[in-house]
Amino acid sequence: MKILYLVTKSEAGGAQTHIYQLSKYFIEKGNKVAIMSYPGGWLEEEAKKLGVKFYPNKYFSNIPDPIRIFKAMKEIRKVVKDFKPDLIGCHSTAAGFLGRMTIRNKIPTTFTAHGWAFTEGAPFLRKCLVILIEKIAGRFCSKIICVSDSDRNLALKYKIVSKEKVITIHNGVEISINQPNQRKSAFIKIVFVGRLAQPKDPLLLLESFNSLSFELKDRTQISIIGEGPKRKELEKFIKENKLGEKIRLLGSISREEVFEILRNSDIFVLISNWEGFPYTIIEAMSFGLAIIASEVGGIKEAVNESCGILIKRGDKEGIKNALGRLLKNPSLIKEMGERGKEKVKEEFSLDKMLEKTEKIYKSV
Description:
The chain is α/β, with parallel strands linked by helices.
């Protein structure tokens, strides 16, 4: 089988991790795989290491520019003619729409929704526009794969496609990354991983942390991993509140470095206004971290009271109380971490995700 994946950006992220995992799996099983994306980024580099052909499309963009859209679709047609895929897997909103509208059912096509752009909490006008374009594009694919039941329910709620055409396959992580932790620090270590831009809200974490008692703050360290436009407001807050010794802004680092930090941390926090089904949470759970996360999207399908604490969207007081509860009870952190590891093994293994996806590919 020859599989062509389309994704808007090549930078590190959930959709890109998903495509990397699938590409590696299908290459190892003797299939041929190609990826088309905006050039320059983590996925392009990893594709080359795998021996996957990478087709750059410099016209892929989230900007609704008619000229760029026309040129991007033209590039898709060129690649289809060159690679001659048996199946096309579309990922992310822009590339997913352009891919389906270009192919128009001439080749079996799937679309994987890594969180709908019309999810609860998204801007109203954007929701209306995306619902319309997804209803149009939904006519031109064989199957829609959602990474959470929450996303599948949203697709059905807004009648994007029929019930038979949409399925849930949760993201999965390699159990092999679940190595014994190396926590030796006297500090309780908190980590946040995510692009410092909407929908993430890392400032809310810092504000909640700063409102804790001196005693709790004094024995805690926070690492924030990621880059983006919100970095400046974080830097300003840290400087104004003299938190430089307590909070580290690490920027964009390699996945290996992220895993090393997770291995040495205790609590993972993801504060967000909307989400699909974040890889970062199940990766953190696989390393035995207790979770504090916003109760949005598919997060509640991974996190429950046994392994973490869910917070209502934008609830600063809720974050403060969750931090306080865990920081005062190190034994609870450990208990939640152990239960989280077991949950990942049972429900979110990479093998399950790959096998279910392969079954869908063969069916279409």
